[in-house]
């Protein structure tokens, strides 16, 4: 079986009837790039940037971040790298952030909420990202979005960062920018959000958690945590449709993207990208190459 998967290396991620579906890798550190390359990923679809902030005493500097992002971009050699901005809080804590103790941290002060409330932290990361963008094919995505207003606030901060870099005559480029769709709010207003961004990446881990009202880390609730729930799959379908109506691409980067029992379903829904653990890249590519994109979608998830 492993032998058969090795045969997928060097092949295009394209369906039996000719639709290109990028198979990207999820990584959590610079060294993970090795695994992505070993498994012949078409790019990086989710680089969890938290690793730069965790397990240390103080914030990483702009220079440290710039070097890390640049290294990943250079090693991916022109292939797309989607870096997600800081998604700290909830289960990922770092003492020096001095985050408040909360009853329900998953519903609390985390991710983009911290970045918007403490723009200095956000700006340092954005400066590093815009500067690194000249070294490869970078896309940036923002986590835990729930509203159009958040996107406008992000855009305002990105513009301030651009002005700063212009004044300093620094070398930079504005990367492609997208959002994670991982809250039911974002999924339900994805028609309004799509014109404001360049892509959607669906985070099925959190989308399942928030849709089913089930803590994704709770072992007691394991039997109820069902990412195949029709509510989740309908939202995925809806998000894909709204992305394509607005002319942007949409992918999936949560665990569900690697579930090969759904690959053909995702392809028929119009998924442009599936981003999975490096060890699942070849398995998903194999499934895509056997799938037919253009058949009628089963009406199961029609709205
Ligand atoms: C998700 O929520 O599906 C996701 C990809 O992000 P994370 O697992 O890092 O929350
Ligand atoms: Mg998430």
From TrEMBL:
Record's GO cellular component, any one? cytoplasm
- Role this protein plays: General (non sugar-specific) component of the phosphoenolpyruvate-dependent sugar phosphotransferase system (sugar PTS). This major carbohydrate active-transport system catalyzes the phosphorylation of incoming sugar substrates concomitantly with their translocation across the cell membrane. Enzyme I transfers the phosphoryl group from phosphoenolpyruvate (PEP) to the phosphoryl carrier protein (HPr).
Instruction: Spell out the catalytic residues.
Output: 253
Principal EC category: transferase
This protein is called Phosphoenolpyruvate-protein phosphotransferase
Organism this protein belongs to: Blautia liquoris
Name its co-factor(s).
Mg(2+)
Q: What is the covered span of the full protein?
A: 248 to 550 of 550
Q: Where does Mg(2+) bind?
A: 182, 206
Residues recorded as binding phosphoenolpyruvate, renumbered to this chain, are 48, 84, 205-206, 216
